[in-house]
């Protein structure tokens, strides 16, 4: 019994010991579990912190990227809009000639859209462009722009002049060239007008000197010729008397002169002499015109007087045309008086009307028509002379203001009419004379005169 109690007590002690040990182990386990948990928590929070930092950095980087992209796009659009708003044609090409840029001016000038051009070979889509592959190659190879000035191009049936520059393009990733084309037709026109004026000025000076030198001997030749003709005429009683005093038969002499065509030669000399005198008279207009005063002038009155003058002249020299010719007059009553030389303007208008009549006669029109009109377009007065004559091709119209240029047969024209007119309008009145003509259809001359001249005040109509 005691033993049993002892065993039981020992068992109890063992169990208690075991329990105590288990408890300690559990406590230790719990302790280490807690420590691990704490460690884990620490690690987790440090990871979370670094993730948060990483995500912040990422977000910032993304934001920066978004801003940079937006700025880049903006800059790209800005540059594009600069390139597109330039009046020059700008074409970007690769060294092989493939198009990389095609601005709005290029679209407008060629009718080829950007989409149709990008990526294609320049010479395939626009073979008329006067830029050679050699020019592009040279610009890229030498890293120097290549330039060609005043290149003539035929575009949509009209002749234009362009300046072409090929700029080499060298960047890290891209090599190529930018072709810039500028339309300089207007500059070319102004240059040739200035040249024209210079030519006319020097012609004027020459004319002033020559005219007197030629006029006097010419007058003597014509006078003597007239005397010779008169003294050979059998009708003159004085001639009869002088001939019979020498035993000469005037009738026989006259027959001889006729048989040998001498009278015809003399008549030819007279015509040629008068023609020479007419040329000299025209040339004198240059020197005289510079001394004429500009006075308040009614352009409508001058125009009407010129028409009346021409009607009479046409009636005498072209009676068949006169019978059918209609001259329409349309004058703008709002035109004020303005400083001009009425005589000179009349000279110009008569020249234009005469040319118009000659062109119509040559065209043999069923309904010959000349229209003359004035318009008040402040600060200018405009006057137009329009005809339905033979018209001119571009080659002729380019030369018509050149002194002595004429397409008329010898004896028909001196070729001075329009060059004098040009001088009077541009030099004396600071205006413009322009022509627009279509072969076989007709011609229009447009004169633009400033209503005010330096040192003159314009006036109201009377
Ligand atoms: N209205 C027109 N229609 C067609 N051609 C014209 C017209 N006006 C001028 N021309 C052309 O311009 C040329 C030059 O004209 P311009 O008046 O200077 O000389 P011209 O008429 O030949 O001679 P001039 O006037 O001295 O008698 C003419 O020969 C003609 O070919
Ligand atoms: Mg003429």
What would you say this structure looks like, in words?
With 462 residues, this protein is of the alpha+beta class. Among the domains are: 84-183, Beta-Lactamase, CATH 3.30.450; 292-462, Histidine kinase-like ATPase, C-terminal domain (Heat Shock Protein 90). It has 14 helices and 12 strands. The protein has helices at residues 2-85, 104-110, 114-117, 122-125, 133-142, 185-232, 237-245, 250-259, 262-289, 299-317, 319-324, 342-363, 394-399, 417-428; strands at 89-93, 99-102, 146-155, 158-170, 175-183, 295-297, 326-330, 338-340, 369-377, 380-387, 432-438, 442-450. The strands form 3 sheets. Strands 2-1-5-4-3 form a 5-stranded antiparallel beta sheet. Helix 9 (262-289) packs parallel to helix 14 (417-428). The longest helix is centred in the first third of the chain and has 84 residues, at 2-85. The protein is rod-shaped, with a radius of gyration of 49 Å. Residues 458-462 have low confidence and may be disordered. The structure holds adenosine-5'-triphosphate and magnesium ion. Adenosine-5'-triphosphate (ATP) is lined by residues 351, 355-356, 359, 387, 389-392, 396, 400, 405-408, 413-419, 443.
